[in-house]
Design brief:
The chain has one domain. With about 290 residues, the protein is α+β, with helices and mostly antiparallel strands. Strands 1-2-3-8-9-12-13-16 form an 8-stranded antiparallel barrel. The chain has a 6-stranded antiparallel β-sheet with strand order 6-7-10-11-14-15. Helix content is about 15%, strand content about 45%. The longest helix has 19 residues.
């Protein structure tokens, strides 16, 4: 008990000494504005402020190139050029000719929409240290990480993909087109509010100089990435998660049969995406102290 009291007393004295330390670096005394680039969250704008000599805080907005996407390179292989949103991709080899629906190809257009607002706190082991441990939360500002619109086609013969009265009504494995005959799919994080933990070097606010450089690396806990399509048959847009359980649903046996051997490739990828726990972040920011 005496040992515990001694530790608590020592911590209290330490915090009090930080709070009473005279000098430049104190509660909201200084503010900075920074711009930077992140490997997985794109361009950033950061506002930093001081709290204690060994504690600073940041508000950070990031936008992963809403208008520039690397999706073509990822989806088509190493030889594909970098692309501009929307990402374009084509799924061929489909052989679905059931219930008056004829699909053997789907043309996709997608957009990356990652935009985040982060509230971060940097702890420095000593008042003069540049090494810091960072914790905080990240809010997803975009409703989806990726949004895709698919146009089903029938290139085998002259039969229509589907009759107009079937659009938005006839289900394929629990999903339908919209009333224009288009298929919609979205990728969402499992956690819209993502805890963040990381380390780095540099101070968002440099009380001894005008400019500072901040390097950060860490992870956000995202709760996996989940793929959804939609069912319009009830008259409203009902999300349906496209995962391993969906593929193995006995009601979707017809779809699974049409997918054939490709199921062995699709299921592990969906399982990995659904269970992927974290998103890594690597950032470099240049900050200018405003006052």
């Amino acid at each position: 008990m005496k040992k515990t009291l001694a530790i608590v007393t020592a911590l209290a004295i330490s915090v009090a000494s930080f709070a009473q330390t005279p000098g430049e670096n104190y509660l909201f005394n200084h503010w900075s504005l920074g711009v930077g680039f992140g490997l997985t969250d794109g361009l950033q704008v950061t506002v930093g402020t001081t709290i204690l000599p060994n504690l600073q805080a940041r508000i950070q907005y990031s936008d992963f190139f809403t208008h520039v996407a690397i999706g073509n390179a990822i989806m088509k292989g190493q030889n594909a050029p970098f692309g501009i949103n929307p990402i374009e991709y084509q799924i061929t080899g489909i052989n679905y000719h059931e219930n008056g629906i004829n699909i053997d190809q789907v043309d996709l257009q997608g957009t990356i929409q990652q935009r985040d607002l982060a509230l971060l706190v940097d702890f420095f082991p000593s008042p003069k240290s540049t090494f810091h441990v960072t914790g905080g939360i990240m809010f997803s500002l975009a409703p989806n990480l990726v949004s895709v619109v698919g146009t089903p086609k029938n290139t085998t013969n002259s039969d229509p993909v589907m009759d107009n009265q079937d659009k938005g009504h006839v289900r394929i494995a629990g999903i339908t087109t919209d009333y224009e005959g288009l298929i919609h799919a979205d990728v969402k994080y499992g956690l819209p509010v993502k805890p963040y933990l990381g380390i780095g070097f540099g101070r968002p606010v440099n009380p001894d100089g005008r400019v500072s450089v901040n390097f950060d690396m860490g992870v956000a806990f995202i709760g996996g990435a989940h793929l959804y399509s939609y069912d319009y048959s009830s008259g409203s847009r009902v999300p349906v998660e496209l995962n391993e359980a969906w593929i193995n649903d006995p009601n979707n046996a017809e779809l699974k049969a049409n997918l054939g051997d490709s199921v062995n490739d699709i299921v592990p990828k969906l399982r990995t995406a659904n269970n992927f726990p974290v998103m890594p972040y690597l950032r470099l920011t240049v900050n200018v102290r405003l006052f």
